[in-house]
Design a protein that fits this description.
Layout lengths: L12 H5 L2 H10 L2 E3 L4 E4 L2 H9 L13 H9 L18 H9 L5 H5 L2 H18 L1 E3 H6 L1 H11 L3 H14 L9 H27 L5 H7 L1 E2 L2 E2 L2 H17 L1 H14 L1 H9 L4 H11 L5 E5 L4 E3 L2 E3 L4 E5 H4 L3 H4 L29 H18 L4 E2 L4 E2 L8 E3 L1 E3 L2
Parallel strand pairs: 2-9
Antiparallel strand pairs: 1-2, 3-13, 4-5, 6-9, 7-8, 10-13, 11-12
Helix pairs in contact: 7-9, 7-19, 9-13, 10-11, 11-13, 14-16, 14-19, 16-19
Length: 403
């Protein structure tokens, strides 16, 4: 950590590379931490769990004036402001209405129906790995799998996918704990362009409906309610971005953890029935999403501190998942047989519990199970490279050898 005088600095490359020492420091020194950058950082498991379920808002318009409010105002420009209509940014009853319309595509039966397609995509990726011998896990499997699945679910034309991938990578920078003015401009431009692409796609789908999620969302209705055009665009962008930007982290971070803990890899080979639990431990050990935001609508007491009304609160999922007071002295260890691994908070809780959790779990389980069983000599072939993000924290590259 650089010598900034801060308990932790979300812009510090050392923190971005490995935030867990900083989390432990915050939990020890000031677990309900009012950061000089303008946000409150809540780090303990019990406090984070309570905040995720509390009657708080996600509407940035309720923020009091300050550094964080200014950051949101900087992003609220151009056509990209439509994205403030996602269910991720709405409170009940609007959130309830939007989620009920979208969730019809994420029922257990609908997710289970995707398994054959996921298996096919994984096996095709593994075939390419076998042929290459050495490859990049992210480019060959971790990114293409969830990207292709959500693209197919939505009915996204293949001609648009490369550009959408680039734009979504910029858009998720808006979820960081802090951004600078230049990054805010890039995010605004990406948001505007992405909204335009999705608007065009919706027009094409209305003219030529298909058997896909986007067509279903266009027609979706509940109790006489339909999505407005802007609401439809916002939910499609959210599903597209959230549908792949997080699962790539689960697979890449999880496989890397396995390869760095050969005893756990050996245990998984010996007991493949642990795969589902191993995925839960991967979600706990190095969470694909490190923080969840809330905005207080009234003073909120947590521990011996009172967070004022209109404050921006970061519930530190990654820190909660390593809290020794909940997980025990081995909280920092990677153990695929951890009995309570599924108690992690990586998918959030309450109204905003991740809609795609079951899909992410299924993709992760199939990918890791088949990768480990296919390649008994699977190993790292170089040092993984981080993606440079502190919230959707993952790996940009994981060199592996399979032969």
């Amino acid at each position: 950590m650089t010598d900034t005088g801060l308990l932790f600095d979300p812009l510090d490359p050392a923190y971005i590379a490995d935030p867990y020492p900083a989390y432990q420091r915050v939990r020890t020194v000031d677990p309900i931490h009012e950061h000089p950058y303008g946000f409150w950082f809540v780090s303990g498991y019990d406090d984070v769990s309570a905040i995720l379920r509390a009657a708080m808002s996600v509407n940035d318009r309720l923020l009091e004036d300050g550094l964080v409010r200014q950051q949101f105002d900087d992003l609220d420009e151009g056509d990209g402001r439509v994205l403030a209509l996602t269910m991720l940014d709405r409170d009940p009853p609007d959130h309830t209405r939007l989620r009920s319309l979208v969730s019809k595509a994420f029922t257990p039966r609908k997710i289970a129906e995707l398994e054959p397609e996921i298996v096919t995509l994984v096996d095709q990726a593994l075939d390419r790995m076998a042929e290459a011998g050495r490859t990049d896990l992210v480019e060959t499997l971790a990114f293409p799998l969830p990207f292709e699945v959500i693209s197919a679910m939505l009915g996204m034309p293949s001609t648009d996918r490369d550009r959408v991938r680039d734009l979504s990578g910029t858009l998720v920078l808006s979820l960081e704990a802090a951004t600078d003015a230049e990054t805010a401009k890039l995010i605004t431009a990406a948001s505007t362009e992405l909204v335009g692409l999705v608007r065009q796609l919706i027009e094409r789908k209305r003219a030529e409906p298909g058997d896909d999620l986007l067509t279903a969302l266009i027609a979706a209705e509940s109790d006489g309610d339909r999505l407005t055009d802007d609401e439809l665009i916002a939910q499609v962008v959210l599903l597209y971005v959230a549908g792949h930007e997080t699962t790539v982290n689960l697979i890449a971070n999880g496989v890397t953890a396995l390869l760095r803990h050969p005893d756990q890899l050996a245990l998984l080979r010996e007991r493949p029935e642990l795969t589902a639990n191993a995925v839960e431990e991967m979600l706990r050990y190095d969470s694909p999403v490190q923080m969840s935001r809330r905005i207080t609508v009234e003073p909120y007491q947590v521990g011996d501190r009172v967070i004022p009304k209109g404050a921006f609160v970061l519930a530190a999922l990654g820190s909660a998942n390593h809290d020794e007071r909940y997980w025990g002295a081995d909280a920092g260890e990677f153990r695929i047989d951890r009995e309570n691994a599924r108690h992690h908070v990586s998918f959030g809780a309450g109204h905003h519990h991740c809609l795609g959790a079951a899909l992410a779990r299924l993709e992760g389980k199939i990918a890791i199970e088949r990768l480990v069983s296919r390649f008994p000599r699977l190993a790292l072939a170089g040092e993984p490279t981080g993606n440079g993000r502190s919230n959707l924290r993952g790996l940009a590259s994981v060199p592996i050898s399979v032969g």
